[in-house]
Amino acid sequence: METISLGTDKLTNFIDGEWQEANETAAVVNPATGEEIVQVPLSDEGAVERAVKAAKKAQKEWALVPAPQRAEVLYQVGYLMKQRKERLSQLLTMENGKVLEEARGEVQEGIDMAFYMAGEGRRLFGHTTPAELKDKFAMSQRAPVGVVGIITPWNFPIAIATWKSFPAIVAGNAVIWKPATETPVMAYELAKIFEEAGLPKGIINVVFGSGSVVGDAMVHHPDIRVISFTGSNETGRNIAGECGRQLKKVSLEMGGKNAVIVMDDADLDLAVDGILWSAFGTSGQRCTACSRVIVHEKVKTDLEERLLAKMKDLTIGNGLDEKNKVGPIINKAGLDKIKQYIEIGKNEGAKLLAGGSPLEDEAYRGGHYFAPTLFTDATADMRISREEIFGPVVSLIPVNSLEEAIEANNQVEYGLSSSIFTRDVNRVFQAQRDLDTGIVYVNAGTTGAEIHLPFGGTKGTGNGHRDSGVQALDVFTEWKAVYVDYSGKLQRAQIDVD
Ligand code: UN1
């Protein structure tokens, strides 16, 4: 396959419609090979300051552009993304490592979001409602917040950016965007697309750099009125603390410990496919990845055997080679964390059935690869069953009933995604009611969220907000209640009612 060329060896920030260099840069490395792809700016606080200044100015005009016209830009963004889908997908595989088929899926998720949110330009519905008093009109409508900050992770460098930036833009805000330094190429490409699509300068500003400098400056900046963050629980809590002090709106999405429940009446082959796809796809580096299988005792051995048989077909390697089904781990720190959890699992008494070690043969040189790993006989209270590993590691937890399965699912600190395989409609409805997660799948794995539904979770996964779906608009808008009294006299609410 011909490799796509990025066309530059140094990325630049995109501020006020201009491509601006930073003094310092760092190398971006292909996790499959260890080769340098490009240099990414490590910006300072000054870049954030310039971006906010430009955004403030541009947003005032943008807010006055009718929303259907704002949406036209997003349609154009969607068309350009569609035209460049293959280019974007290959670059995504190079910087993130996920296999090409999944990269294409992620880019498609961004395209879907463009057209969906463009449609919102003709909706952005508020409510009209009867007023209590005669000759009085009442309605609620959405107003943009102003300048918003988005901080996006490396595991879905384009899809998650679209979940946040597209609703913000269609609703009339200006955006300061700090992408993860591991995967800046998607941000650079998307900024170029925004520019070509005709988005006015200053409405999207991409500032590359570290969380401790650029992220911190954004969180502390009084003129950035919303922070939407996807990333680690620890960073999210820190951001929320600071935003709380400033009364700044903050939307957090911070991971999961997602389980597939397999009941004794399940279609086991289907369950195996769902588990393998959601546990080992993206090498388990998804917030939604399945990392626990809560299995009914009666089918446990059967399920283990079928999983082990099919795990043999998972070819691991560079995602640009289409025969590979599982790509690399993002970096050494990610790999080291996975290794630690294997030791923790063994020490806790879980039984290792497959995998459990990094792949270090000649074929994997330069990259960070970990063998798909299966533990069994885990219990719900073990650390490997409770803590996010962010790698291709899944643990089987045997149970004896649906009630026990639901309890085990709900026992963790997170609440993003869950799944149940069963043919019994009564169990389906009981499970979807009682599983304490923001996303529930029936007869499918724990991944595969679609963009027109809300994405996010309960408990330690977030703070009550949602990405994507129409619900994302709530993060980037303020509700305004408007009362119009056309009686020509003073009418006092709750008093002049007779
Ligand atoms: C994430 O892992 O942070 O449902 C996002 C999914 C994808 C999005 C995952 N559509 O797995």
From TrEMBL:
Matching PANTHER family: ALPHA-AMINOADIPIC SEMIALDEHYDE DEHYDROGENASE
Report the top EC class in one word: oxidoreductase
What does the annotation say about its assembly with partners?
A: Homotetramer.
Active-site residues (renumbered): 253
Q: Which Gene3D superfamilies match?
A: Aldehyde Dehydrogenase, Chain A, domain 1, Aldehyde Dehydrogenase, Chain A, domain 2
Question: Which family does this protein fall into?
Answer: Belongs to the aldehyde dehydrogenase family.
Q: Which UniProt keywords apply?
A: NAD, Oxidoreductase
Name the Pfam families for this protein: Aldedh
Q: Where is the Aldehyde dehydrogenase domain?
A: 19-482
Name of the protein in question: aldehyde dehydrogenase (NAD(+))
What is the top-level taxon of the source organism? Bacteria
The UniProt record lists the EC number as 1.2.1.3
Q: What InterPro entries does UniProt report for this protein, alphabetically?
A: Ald_DH/histidinol_DH, Ald_DH_C, Ald_DH_CS_CYS, Ald_DH_CS_GLU, Ald_DH_N, Aldehyde_DH_dom, ALDH7A1-like
Translocase in keyword set: no
Q: Does the keyword Cytoplasm apply?
A: no
